Amino acid sequence: MIGLTKIIVAGFKGRMGATAVDMVLNHDGFELVGVYDPVATEKNLNEVAGYADQNVPVLTLEQVPDVTPDVWIDFTIPKAAVANTKFALEHHISPVIGTTGFKAEEVAALKQLSKEQGVGGLIAPNFGLTAVLMMQFAKQAAKYFPDVEIIEMHHDNKLDAPSGTAIKTAEMMAEVRAQKEQGNPNEKETLKGARGANYDGMHIHSVRLPGLIAHQQVQFGGVGEGLTIRQDTYDRVSFMTGVALACEKVTAAHELFEGLENFL
Ligand SMILES: NC(=O)C1=CN([C@@H]2O[C@H](COP(=O)(O)OP(=O)(O)OC[C@H]3O[C@@H](n4cnc5c(N)ncnc54)[C@H](O)[C@@H]3O)[C@@H](O)[C@H]2O)C=CC1
Ligand SMILES: O=C(O)C1=N[C@H](C(=O)O)C[C@H](O)C1
Among all ligands shown, which has an atom nearest to the Cα of 155? Predict the structure, then answer.
């Protein structure tokens, strides 16, 4: 019999971390061996409402190696996730990182560390299958329609802007899109920020409102025609199919991949 995959969830007190805890507890073949979050005051998950019948230690960072996890799920905050990923790789725990806000040079350094340690992993700005498809469709369209703007819309507790998904969408489109500075070459912002962020000539607009979860529209314009590719996340549970898939596959990986599509 193949053993259980031992998993730790970092950021378990947060919106995504709590959803990941439920996924791991209810997924065949997974064992939740610990949870970690610096704001936690509990010593065990059974002290958290709704988890009385669980026996999962709330760990400090130093205690993590004691429970010998195979996989580190991370839904934390941008400034913590780089150090967490480094810690996981150095302790031969395969990271499955959902936290966004990584800089390109930070990812490059972590990829190098993954090679040196011989430990694979995954950093994915979006574990939603509709989001992965939306990015792939947008890349396909960008080949024919270089005139494009991205509008991403999220809940107003989000720390990073633009979203990791918007940046990855722009990166993927930039691979195939004819370079173009979107808009009128003579345009002037009379109110700073009106044209949003600029990635390789493509503008990204970040909307933050209560009531939203995660949504993105990639809007293309052509001569006399337009194409809008839109993705909506209505429930955070939608991310868990991708997270579970990553946890199943990541321990066999030999490098640190970027994007769930690498595991599909
Ligand atoms: N890849 C994906 O599919 C998705 C990614 N995200 C990303 O996940 C991250 C978390 O999002 P939410 O759960 O909404 O945020 P949240 O604010 O609800 O939760 C973050 C949690 O991380 C904890 N934390 C802070 N520093 C930490 C550290 N050093 N180690 C461990 N935990 C730490 C906080 O105490 C908090 O409980 C964000 O970066 C967000 O963009 C969110 C949804 C989907
Ligand atoms: O913070 C969020 O909520 C989300 N963050 C990710 C991102 O930045 O792209 C994924 C999804 O959009 C939800």
Answer: 2
Ligand 1 atom closest to the CA of 128, numbered from 1 = 3
239 alpha carbon, distance to own chain's centre: 9
Model pLDDT for residues 218-246, shown as the tens digit of each residue: 999 999 999 999 999 999 999 999 999 99
The answer to whether the CB of 100 is under 6 A from ligand 2 is yes
In 2-143, at which residue ranges do the beta strands (DSSP E only) sit?
5-10, 30-36, 71-74, 94-97, 121-123
CB of 37 closer than 6 angstroms to any ligand 1 atom:
yes
Neighbours of 6 (CB within 10 A): 18
- State the pLDDT at residue 134: 98
Between the CA of 19 and the centroid of ligand 1 the distance, in Å, is: 11
Query: What is each CA distance from 140 to 21, 75, 133, 164, 230, in whole angstroms?
Result: 35, 30, 10, 19, 14
Cβ 155 vs Cβ 212: under 8 Å: yes
pTM of full prediction above 0.90: yes
Residue 170 near residue 146, CB atoms below 8 Å: no
Consecutive H or E run containing 116: helix 104-117
Q: Where exactly are the structural domains of the chain?
A: 5-123+237-263, 129-233
What's residue 225's pLDDT?
98
| 203 is known as an active-site residue | no
Q: Which CATH class is domain 129-233?
A: alpha beta
What was the pLDDT predicted at 1? 45
CA of 163 to the centre of ligand 2 (A): 6
CATH architecture of 5-123+237-263: 3-Layer(aba) Sandwich (3.40)
